[in-house]
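Good morning N.,

You mentioned wanting to compare the apo and holo forms, so I went ahead and generated the holo version with adenosine monophosphate. This is what I fed in:
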Amino acid sequence: MKTVDRNTPAVGIDLGTTYSVVAYLDAQGHPETLVNAEGERLTPSVVFFDDEEVIVGREALKAFARLPERAAECSKRDVGYKVYHKVLQGKYYPPEVIEAYILNKLRQDAAQQIGDFSQVVITVPAYFDEVRRKATQDAGYMAGLDVMDIINEPVAAALAFAYEAGFLSEASIPSRPERILVYDLGGGTFDVTVMEIRGHEYVTLAIDGDVRLGGWDWDQRLVDLVAEAIIREHGFDPREDVRAWGKLWSLCEEAKRTLSVRPRATISFEYQGRTAEIDVQREQFEAATQDLLDRTRFTTTQALKAAGLTWAEIDRVLLVGGATRMPMVRRLIRDLVKKEPEVSVSPDEAVALGAAIHAGWLLGKAQGNPPRFRIRNVNSHSLGVVGIDPLTRRPRVGTIIPRNTRLPIIAKRRFKTHRPNQRSILVRIVEGESPNPEDCCSIGQVVIRDLPLNLPKGWPVEVIFHYRANGRLRVKIRVRHMEQDIVAEFRRERALTKELLDGWRRFISGKEPTDYE
Ligand code: AMP
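and this is what came out, ligand included:
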């Protein structure tokens, strides 16, 4: 780790699907949320591509309602894919580039208050796989940041909660393990994590989730509900016109928030000189989205099972993500856990606050301070390599590190050369739970070149996987009787090249590239 100036601020960023939040540790070491240039604590994660400039945040969200074809929203959902699903100004953008624009605004706005900084901790959903974690780190790099670590959102939320409860101070460490269930329903992703706080240790017991389920899906259902009423009463479908759809979507998102506090909401939709007034009752909205909630119930139960616990053994439930404000979510928790959810930290800000606490710890560590807590994670997806099934001769996944394994871990796999004087070996690495490689997420391949000359057939070659605590992977190769490990070329399938990353970094943040792993 680099040497750290005592004045380096500890900054944590919650890069959310719909909103992002930045927090830092103030002079007394308290985590505080920073406001953006518009004076708001939450910055909409929307990027608008205007003719001359790229706009991020509140203004981009407003422009999105007028010209949705020029705006990128929910880009976090596409992270891990090669390109964002929408063509913007005639161009396909990698999702991490869109995320970099968001991070760049967050960096610039925060710097207005705490001065220039680059070292940050960024959070990711616990359920994010290796490819998505790497893409998030790349987004930070392109935004001119130095990402010290990426941590799981629920762990960050648990740290913020522990700070509020005083568990992080020597005097009030919990005397017995506290088992916490973190139910995180954000704008676009759902994560559930079962954790145990054992004194200073924050141990993740199990993770489950759904990367394509969030408040956005509830919005969609409300849009459909209202659109059908407009069709019945006014004979036109606002979903058929992209601009009308954008307008209706933002009205529905607002109405959804109203329905969290009132039993009904009215949507006034103006289109082509006509006004449609649609009343929606909370029960109607809940009935139209019950199956989405049931999906979260199922996933939560699975996570509890994977942790080997019963509901009675859960001490607290933390709700994270704006969508947990929906009364139906709180009802579900009461129904499952028979306890009231924790309300000591704001569900919107907990993650960024926890990330700032972690950033403070990392900076302190670099200055030689003793740690106040320790995070122990598990992996959320099994990691494997593709081999050939000896019976069927078909490709098959050989699991190397099963999901929910405690990290960091080093796992080894032995391969054999197939023929005499073989000079190279190719190992395909995948993540997923299926034995069929087609159903898994391919994260890349390791190409071992320059094996020593004249190795006999069947010579053992060991591939070593180092899965780090932050869910990132390093691969090394060892060939028997060779003096040195071969540094394998780990070619990632969907990641941007170093040249592209540097180019985007100069373009988006105006910062010169620095060394980057
Ligand atoms: P996050 O990704 O954590 O910022 O969560 C944002 C999601 O929470 C979006 O889908 C919002 O529409 C939703 N949300 C925020 N506030 C409320 C609320 N009061 N009631 C229902 N959903 C909300």
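The two ends are 13 Å apart (CA to CA).

Happy to go through it together on a call whenever suits you.

Best,
F.
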